[in-house]
Each structure stands twice: as C-alpha cells, then as structure tokens.
Amino acid sequence: MNALTTALRVLRWAVDGTGPPPGGPLQHTAALIDPGADVHRALAELIRRFAAQHGAGRPPFGDPEPAGAGGVLLAAAIGGRMDPDSACAVAEALPPPALSVRDGGWCDALARHAVVAPFLDALPRLPGATPQGAAGTGRATAETYERRISEVLLDASPLTAVLHHPASGPLSRGATGAVRTAGALVRRPGGHRFLCHALADWPGRAPVLDWRSQLLARLSADHPEVVLDTCLTARLRYGAEWDLRIREARRQLALRSLPDDLTLATVRFWAPLADLARRHSGLAAARPLLTGHQPAVGLVRRYRLTPSATG
User: Model-level pTM?
Assistant: First the structure.
C-alpha cells in the first residue's frame, strides 16, 4: 500500500458512508497528482452522490470545471492521520481554491468538503489508536493530534469551514474568509438551497452551533433570506429534533447552576432570527410556513443571548 491506495480507500469510504474512516501509509505521495482511473472514478462518484444528496445541482453550483486534486490529497491526509506530520504536510501542500461568484473552483471545493465533512463527523467515534510520535503519552495527546489535523483540513476545505466551523489557527483564513465564501455561495446556482439545508440541522456540537449562529448573524444584513430559509428548513425538516433540544435547553436554563456550552449554543442558533424579527417585524410573513420557532426565540430574548464571537 501507498498514499494512492490510502486515498482510494478513504474516497470509497466517503461514498459508502459507513464505519470509521480507514487508514493507511503515505509513501509515494507524488503519485497523488496523477492518481489514475480508479481514483478519478471514485472521486467522480463521491461528487455525484454528495451533490445529489445535498442539492448542489449538476454540475455542482453550475461549475462545469472538473474537480482538481483537492479531494484526493485530503483523502490521503485523512487516511494517513496516524502519521500526523506527514498527513498535515500533504494537506498543507494544497492551495485553497479561489472561490468567487463568477469564477470556477466550486466543484473542487465540493469534492474537498465531501471528504472532510464525514471525517469530522466521525471524530468522536474514532477508535483510540495512538498516532506516531505519541506513544506512551495517552489519549490526551492523541486528541491534540486530531485537533491539529482537523484544523489543517478545515483550512484546506472552504465549504467545510462555512458549514462546520472555520479553522482558528493564526495563519488560517478564519471567520472572515468563511463569511466571504458563504456570501459567494448563495449567489451560485443551487448555492442558496445547499447552504440553508446544510446549516439547518442540530449537529450536537457547541462550536458548530455557535459558528452557525454567528455566520447567520453576519449574513443577515445582506442576505436576510438565508436566515429565514435556514430556520424554515430547520422547522420543516428537523422540527421534532429541535423541539426536543429546545425543551431540554429550557429545563437547563431554569436551573440555578450554570448551563453547559451545548445548551447555550442550541438556543443561540435562533438568535439571528430573533434579531431579524426585532429589526424587521414583517419580514417573517414572507415565510408563512415558518412556525414553531417561537419557544426558541422566546428563550433567546428571555436570557438575552447573542451569537458568540468566533475568530
């Protein structure tokens, strides 16, 4: 096995969507630049399935350009994560796609996200293997390596930075770059629907929820329809889950003890809608199907919660 077979295994895992992400060696990384027919087919299948499942359209976001090497290199980095230095070096060698409303690069950005997003979602469930260089230092050091790789992957995948949360490293593009990417995405074919659907679920992670509330707050001035349609999608597609989480948050907030971060982040997600309704009282009437959000908005106002700051 080498870096190419490692990348292929991860691409096929991302298509299949079951089990933990596979691992493998990172020898002969030069072969990743021209990976061959099997890898190209696996990448094309991943892009096709992910775009169809998440409403990105065909071609994704109206971008006719084929995906570059981004998804392949990030797949290799994920598979080689037990060698963190080499894995980070592979991901860091990848230049970010130049995304704008008119230019290409969106298909490659979707390929990167389709590889990185399921890996980040799987992180809490990954087996506790010890990365190279961390022997005898325990799970805490393994988690440090995971955070390091996650930050590198987030910085290399601009759509994941928008939908999950941006990297926070001193050299990362951070929140400002993610907001810029989101603003360009909503102007691309299929981008508005893709963004609103991707932001609407309850991910069960405080940093993700806090980032999403901040992103919606930043977009609300120029794109209030993104806030409305994200919240509408949250109610229509995930209403039962949100109702459960808001009831739990209400109970936690009523206790004398300090609430945990996830409780606060769950309620803060609805702060941009509460603020939009306060500033433009008739705006929500444009979405007559947007109902059931009042308990969450009521908690936002009662406890004076606002989106928390992110780098």
Answer: 0.90
